[in-house]
Structures
1.
Amino acid sequence: MTENPKPTKRAARKTGRRHPLATVALLAIGLVFTGGAYTAFSASTASAETDITSQQTIDEGKKLFQANCATCHGLEAQGTGDGPSLIGVGAAAVDFQVGTGRMPMQMHGPQAEEKPVQFTEEQIKALAAFVASTAPGPAIPDPELVDGGGNAANGAELFRINCAMCHNVAGAGGALTEGKFAPALTDVSGTHIYEAMVTGPQNMPVFSDMNISPEDKRDIITYLKYVQDNRSPGGFELGALGPVSEGLFIWIFGLGAIVALTVWITAKSN
C-alpha cells in the first residue's frame, strides 16, 4: 500500500490555513487604526471645546481669572479700587488686553504697555469666555473680517479721517498728553486691530458699528496690512513720522553738509 505524499506549500496555502502570526498582525493593525482615529477625534473635540464658550470653558476661565486678575478686578470682575469693572466689556476686550500682553499690568503708569504674553491661547480664550459670560459685550471678530481682503483705498481714506491724528498716517504711532501715546500699528494682527476699534482700549475711542461698519473696519485692516507688507517703497522712511522728521534731517545733515563744504572751500582758497 503506497503512502500519501506530503502536501506541498502551495497545497497547504490552498487549504486556507493561516500563519500563526497572522492573527497577531491583524490585531496590531486594528489597534493602530483605532488609536489613531481616537486621537484625531479627541484633538478635534478639545479644539472645539476651546473655541466654544461652553460652561466648562467658562469655569476654567473663572479659575484663571480669580487666580490672576481678581486682585485688581474683583472675584466676579466687578472691579475694585485698583482696577475697573469688566462686566460688559466682552470677549474682544480680554482677547486684546491679554493677547497683547498689556494685562496683567506690569506696573501702574499712564497706560498699560505691550509686553510678552503671559498666557497660552487656550487660557486667553477661557478668560474671555468667563468675562463674556458676565454680561453681553463685543465678541472676538470672525476671521473673514480680519483677513485683509477688503478695499485698501477705502481703508486708507477712513484711517486718515479717524485714526491718523493719533497713530500717524503710516501707523507709526505718536505721542499724546501726560505721558500717554498711541502705539505703532506696524506689527499688530488684524484681530487685535479690530478688537481695539470695538473696545476702545487706553485713550482710544470706541468705534461701534454705527460709527464704522464691520466692512469698513475690514477695509482699514486691509490698508494697515498693505502698509505692513510694503515698507517705505520710496527709500529711507525716517521713522515714517512725516515732514517734521524729514525737515529736521535736512536741517541737520543737509545744512551741516553745506556748512562743511563752505569751510573746506574757504580753507582751500587761503
2.
Amino acid sequence: MTTTGAIDSSYYLDSQNKRTPSATLDKDDFLQILMVQLQNQDPTSPMDDSKFVDQMTSFTTLEQVMNMSEAVEYMAGNSSIMSPVLEYSHMIDKNVTYNEYDLDTGEITDTITSKVTAVTQQGGYAVLELENGKSIFADAVTKVSNE
C-alpha cells in the first residue's frame, strides 16, 4: 500500500481568482446585476414590466449623474477651460494699482491706480482696459480696491 503525503494547498489556492470587494457600485456593476436578474428569472413568471422599467429608469438616472459628475470633475481640474475674459470680468469698475517700469533699468518709475472699464483677451491672457486709457495684463496688478 502506498501512502501519499499531505496535499500542498498552494497549488490550487494560488490559481484561484481572487475578488477584491468594492465599497461602491458603478453603472457597469448596476447593469451587470440587471443582466443577471434577467438571465435567471423564471420563464413561467417573468419580471413585472413596471419593475423592469423602474430599474431601467434607475440605471439611466445613475448613468446621467455619473456623466455629470465626470464633467464637473473635468471642469474643476482644468481651469484653462474658462475664458480669461470671464475669469477677470469681476474686476470691471474696480480700481487697480500697477507699477510702471523703466525699460532700461527695470526699476519702478511710477505706481498708478485707475479704474477697470473692460476686460479683453490677448494671446490667451486677460488684458484690463483702464479708465486712464492704458491697457495692462491682469498679472501686473499689485492691488485691487473698490475705491
